[in-house]
């Protein structure tokens, strides 16, 4: 599948639109249309149901070290600014950026690559923003030829000096660098820090003391409410708190459709446990979350679980894995992150108690400012846990499965896109596009059609529609040829179509058609609701 085909289908059938499209759109922001909103809601609901509400805390789940409890929260997007100081986002949540004075474009410093090359006695470091190795070399070669005024047939006059390397290896001297979109040398600025948090002001005054941030993750709301949850419920360790909600990051290079957006939705769990059992819980959550995507239809050959190398781990983490999907816009063999599962130790709860932490040797200690006081003071609240059976007091360890609802939606959209050839009304084979969503995720569960708009068929179809509508999101359509109506449902991934025809009027049966196999069979019209419910729930 080409990404353009999916993007076109998403727009045509109301899954995704560019935000503020009539004004030319806004880079990094996307709206979900009538079909997209249902799909994304089904994904969020499936996550909440499978992780939280259907979890049985009395039984040991397969693979879990013991029983555990699950509960939820819904916190605000704007929180006390000290939250982000102690969490580390205020100091650390930045990327280095370079600007091009000529093209007026901005790039992430570590994402620009290039090669030294000589031609016609001149030398330059020619850069590219391309992602795959093949594209990079092609791009650099094309630009080098242009820069030195050489024709394509004189490509052998280019003398390459060394392999393709990151711009970060150049020691900030960019005088001989050709920017990714520049025509002349030396137009790139030196790298500058860029904080990814969106800044805003609380209240009417707007001074520096009223600065606040839109949350860049939902997790911190859970940590700062840890004590509230303990005190207001009877949960006991081990337990998890889940939250779904919007997060905001002023990404420098939003791209790849919704994959990297500036406003997106996260589905996060903070799972609190005893330090001794935390490695086992980490393994449990990592495997459980991987299986969840498989169960909802992502193909194993496109889904990978990648454990981070020790040097890739954050300063507080004892183990992190990413669940990654081979999105069609990535180069062959490359994967994009859907979800990260991190063992975060006691970093977060301690930071909110004691103040922002830094690693010193093997230990985490409160970072000090020049005056010897904590650089960012914690809340001073006791966020420890007291186990009244073992009489032990300790700071729980945290396992964090952190997923993106938009990236999951995009992966399910990519996975669902299918093309095949099926006979049309005249028996001629024609191309069909259909979205093979898992029935739990499909935006519309069934469509009901009268074959023709006469002979009492619409009346029967409307009656069936009314019954189904009480429990499922279904669609009624009586316009146009029935073949066309089927195709329209296939394109939005409706798993079943129910048709009232001439036979219905004599024997009371209707046809039901399966989206994937195109199989059709007859059922009694009064059995439609039971049959649909059974098929949707896999019964
Ligand atoms: P990346 O390296 O791709 O920027 P990240 O490692 O910064 O991602 P996390 O901070 O671990 O991401 O966030 C958890 C999840 O939130 C990610 O796995 C992803 O699904 C989602 N997410 C993060 N940033 C974005 C974004 N800009 N747009 C859409 N989803 C995002």
Would you kindly provide a written description of the structure presented here, covering whatever features stand out?
With 539 residues, the chain is of the alpha+beta class. Helix content is 27%, strand content 29%. The protein has a 7-stranded mixed β-sheet with strand order 3-13-14-22-17-16-15. Strands 26-25-27-28-29 form a 5-stranded mixed β-sheet, with helices on both faces. It has a 4-stranded mixed β-sheet with strand order 8-6-7-9, covered by helices on one side. The longest helix is centred in the first third of the chain and has 20 residues, at 34-53. The mean pLDDT is 93. The structure holds adenosine-5'-triphosphate.
């Amino acid at each position: 599948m080409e990404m353009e085909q999916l993007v076109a289908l998403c727009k045509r059938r109301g899954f995704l639109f560019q935000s503020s499209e009539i004004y030319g759109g806004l880079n990094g922001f996307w709206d979900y249309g009538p079909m997209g909103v249902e799909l994304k809601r089904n994904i969020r609901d499936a996550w909440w149901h499978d992780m939280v509400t259907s979890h049985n805390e009395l039984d040991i789940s397969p693979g879990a070290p013991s029983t555990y409890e699950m509960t939820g929260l819904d916190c605000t997007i704007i929180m006390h600014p000290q939250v982000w100081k102690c969490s580390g986002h205020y100091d650390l949540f930045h990327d280095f950026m370079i600007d091009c004075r000529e093209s007026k474009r901005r790039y992430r410093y570590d994402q620009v690559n290039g090669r030294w090359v000589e031609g016609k006695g001149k030398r330059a470091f020619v850069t590219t923003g391309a992602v795959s190795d093949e594209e990079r070399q092609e791009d650099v070669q094309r630009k080098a030829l242009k820069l030195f005024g050489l024709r394509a047939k004189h490509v052998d006059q280019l003398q390459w000096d060394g392999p393709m390397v990151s711009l970060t290896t150049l020691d900030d001297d960019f005088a001989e660098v050709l920017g990714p979109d520049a025509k002349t040398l030396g137009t790139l600025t030196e790298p500058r820090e860029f904080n990814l948090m969106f800044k805003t002001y609380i209240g009417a005054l707007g001074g520096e003391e009223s600065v606040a941030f839109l949350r860049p993750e939902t997790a911190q709301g859970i940590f700062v409410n840890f004590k509230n949850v303990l005190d207001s419920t009877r949960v006991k360790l081990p337990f998890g708190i889940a939250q779904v909600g919007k997060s905001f990051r002023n990404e420098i290079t939003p791209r790849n459709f919704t994959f990297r957006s500036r406003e997106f939705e996260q589905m996060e769990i903070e799972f609190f446990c005893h330090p001794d059992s935390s490695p086992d819980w980490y393994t449990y959550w990592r495997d459980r979350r991987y299986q969840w995507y498989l169960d909802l239809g992502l193909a194993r050959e496109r889904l990978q679980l990648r454990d981070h190398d020790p040097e890739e781990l954050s300063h507080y983490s004892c183990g992190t894995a990413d669940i990654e999907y081979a999105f069609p816009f990535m180069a062959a063999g490359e994967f994009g992150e859907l979800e990260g599962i991190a063992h975060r130790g006691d970093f977060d709860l301690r930071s909110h108690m004691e103040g922002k932490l830094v690693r010193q040797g093997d230990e985490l200690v409160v970072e000090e400012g020049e005056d010897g006081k904590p650089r960012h003071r914690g809340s001073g609240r006791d966020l420890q846990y007291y186990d009244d059976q073992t009489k032990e007091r300790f700071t729980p360890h945290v396992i964090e499965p952190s997923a993106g609802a938009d990236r999951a939606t995009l992966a399910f959209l990519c996975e669902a896109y299918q093309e095949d050839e099926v006979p049309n009304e005249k028996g001629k084979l024609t191309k069909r596009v259909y979205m093979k969503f898992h029935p739990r995720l499909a935006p519309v569960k069934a469509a009901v059609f009268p074959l023709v708009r006469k002979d009492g068929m619409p009346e029967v179809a409307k009656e069936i529609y009314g019954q189904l509508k009480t429990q499922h999101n279904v669609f009624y359509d009586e316009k146009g040829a029935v073949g066309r109506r089927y195709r329209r449902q296939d394109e939005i991934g409706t798993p079943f179509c129910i048709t009232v025809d001439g036979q219905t009027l004599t024997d009371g049966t209707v046809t039901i058609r399966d989206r994937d196999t195109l199989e059709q069979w007859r059922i009694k019209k009064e059995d439609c609701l039971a049959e649909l419910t059974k098929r949707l729930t896999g019964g």
